[in-house]
Amino acid sequence: MSRSTLPEFLAQHHVTADLQTVILGLAEVSVTISQALAKGALAGILGAAGAENVQGEDQKKLDVIANDLIKDALAKLPAVRGVASEEETDVLPCHTDGRYLVTFDPLDGSSNIDINSMVGTIFSVLPHTGSAPVCEQDFLQPGRNQAAAGYVLYGPSVMLVLSTGNGVTMFTLDQDSNTYLLTDAEVSIPADAKEFSINMSNQRHWTAGMQSYISDLIAGKDGPRSKDFNMRWVAAMVADVHRILCRGGLFTYPWDSRKPEQAGKLRLMYEANPMGFLVEQAGGEVWTPEGKILDIQPEHIHQRVPVILGAANEVKTCVDYHK
Ligand SMILES: O=P(O)(O)OC[C@H]1O[C@](O)(COP(=O)(O)O)[C@@H](O)[C@@H]1O
Ligand SMILES: [Mg+2]
Ligand SMILES: [Mg+2]
């Protein structure tokens, strides 16, 4: 059976030439990152980098390597006006005529690196509407403005999952030819969920609404929901959301009282918006307890947000517990 390659798919779906170069640039650099990850300890690239990022988190060597690779690859593309990364303090200007801004989480799920478990690269492409030179303000657009969003999951196989606003498509890396081939063109999240995903160890720190929602899920058939739910937690949003795109369910990373001043753990512009775009494009819902994430007007590039996403009916139920 002959499968479309990523460039063929983009051309067939009338993606603008400029946007194609951005997506193909990200795809190409992801192959290099996947090769570095595959070498692991043999290349001496596991472990801590010995520095903190702007978020106050310890950087892994591979966070820094992936960040530099993506930054350098995007800076070469004339279509890219500027980039913003979870690992960079400020936005970085690129080409003065570029039509697109790219935000990215170079390696999501970094705590999985040292245990040879799943990690990924998450990206979001926004139109550039400001004036030169590029500044942080240009990036502060609601997620609904995204021209494209996606991720690369470095798992047993390497997968690129993409939306340009017309559904969600999955590609798998053919390791012989180093090309991404289309493997699922009809990604869709069932409206009802049988699985939920949350870091249960934080239970005592959640709001009363989240406490009672999760305890009703755990009560299963014997509780008010009259239904058993399974639970999964990969500790990499990219892998947890991938499971939801493949077989449904609900994922949440709520606000918690350990850092009350922080809205949530996940980053709006590098994690919640791009993943949210994919989930909505697959028929799911993406909310905070207050409203839809893709409608949030960002105030700064490193903003954090509580996230409830996945199966449409289940997300609404979870939000209702917060009222
Ligand atoms: O430590 P926890 O609570 O399991 O957090 C896991 C969450 O943190 C993250 O790893 C944050 O991403 P980074 O690895 O890019 O910092 C999410 O992917 C994941 O959902
Ligand atoms: Mg992340
Ligand atoms: Mg990261």
Itemize the secondary structure elements and their pairings.
Elements: H1 6-12, H2 17-39, E1 48-52, E2 58-60, H3 61-75, E3 80-85, E4 92-93, E5 100-108, E6 119-127, H4 136-139, E7 148-154, E8 158-163, E9 169-174, E10 179-184, E11 195-197, H5 208-219, E12 230-231, H6 237-247, E13 250-253, E14 266-267, H7 268-281, E15 285-287, E16 304-305, E17 307-310, H8 312-320
Parallel strand pairs: 3-5, 11-12, 11-13
Antiparallel strand pairs: 1-2, 3-4, 5-6, 6-7, 7-8, 8-9, 9-10, 13-17, 14-16, 15-17
Helix pairs in contact: 2-3, 6-7
The structure holds 1,6-di-O-phosphono-beta-D-fructofuranose and magnesium ion (MG) (2 copies).
Can you give a write-up of this model?
With 323 residues, the chain is α+β, with helices and mostly antiparallel strands. It has helices spanning 6-12, 17-39, 61-75, 136-139, 208-219, 237-247, 268-281, 312-320, and strands spanning 48-52, 58-60, 80-85, 92-93, 100-108, 119-127, 148-154, 158-163, 169-174, 179-184, 195-197, 230-231, 250-253, 266-267, 285-287, 304-305, 307-310. It has two domains: 6-184, 2-Layer Sandwich (Fructose-1,6-Bisphosphatase, Chain A, domain 1); 195-320, 3-Layer(aba) Sandwich (D-Maltodextrin-Binding Protein, domain 2), CATH 3.40.190. 29% of the residues lie in helices and 24% in strands. The strands form four sheets. Strands 4-3-5-6-7-8-9-10 form an eight-stranded mixed sheet, sandwiched between helices. Strand 9 (169-174) and strand 10 (179-184) form a beta hairpin. Helix 2 packs antiparallel against helix 3 and helix 6 (237-247) runs parallel beside helix 7 (268-281). It is globular. The protein binds 1,6-di-O-phosphono-beta-D-fructofuranose and magnesium ion (2 copies). Residues 105, 108, 237, 271 line the site of one magnesium ion.
